[in-house]
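Incident review: delayed structure delivery

Summary: a single-chain prediction request sat in the queue longer than the usual turnaround. Root cause was a stuck worker, restarted by the on-call engineer. No data loss occurred. The affected request and its eventual output are reproduced below so the record is complete for anyone auditing the incident later.

Affected input:
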Amino acid sequence: NIDVWFATNRKFVSGLPTNDLSESLLFGTSVVSIPKTHKFGSMGSSWFVRWLQRLFNGADDSLKILNCEILEKNEFVASIGGKINDQIRNSLLEMDGCILLYIHGYNTDFNEGLIRAAQIGFDLKVPGAVAAFCWASRGGIEFYGSDCDTIRLSEDHLAEFIAVLHESYPDKTINVLAHSMGNRALAGVLENLTRYPQLLSVKFGQIFLAAPDLDVRYFKRISTLYQSHSKRTTLYVCSKDAALYLATVLHDNHRVGYSPPITVVDGVDTIEASSVCMDVVGHGYYAEAQAVLYDMAVLIRKDISPKERVRLAPMSSEDGRLYWT
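Output delivered after worker restart:
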């Protein structure tokens, strides 16, 4: 099992999350079971394969939420600290403990966000705690426009969550993994830090920009903010990402996470991951491809440049800028 601590701006009714946006932030903790048959990079097989597994073995290989509990903020803070301190006392950490904050993308319901965070945290063997910002995505492909509005309205809530982690654990490194539309909230927080005095001193460890659904022009305008507020920022892009291709068509503007053309800016390491993308939609490679997960795991433990990471090879963009594949 793996614990996932979360903050959400979803409304809860009778103790259950809805797809409606709340004005306030709720904090909580969940326990997600990892089956013995878990495959690296997977949240579980297709429904048909799982049906066969249950038929013949009595169980399947899907990750499942065992329990989910809403906590008061002080209880939430104490719970994360207790988990990290227990790991340190039991010599389970190879470093002084960190927090990985996962921000999911569009078309993701509450449970999917927690399970994906659990899968990533388990596979990366995060030395510390896994946290998730579960914003109020409607959880359906038909709600893209609605999610575009909601993610903008979620910036203040994300800033509040980061502030709680930053102020409560000033000696712990906070790494951030933002996927797809989740990158919009992170970019908005960084762009408007003057609105959040409690975050002016924040310095993340690693920032991972996974398949960002961001306008390239906007990204280039704010790109220096990532370098200013992290040890290192890594951008993962893919030419097989059908979801971002459709987003490019819908917005009539290029998305950062889609290539070609490939987006390269100063202070951000761009990694082209098309060769390791195996799924049809091509949007989940950041959490499913062994090479990408391995790359993130190395960076969480050692802040080393792309030229020092054995699975990466240098490439040159059309305008002669260095990126990696």
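Verification: The longest helix spans residues 73-89.
Action items: add queue-age alerting; document worker restart procedure.
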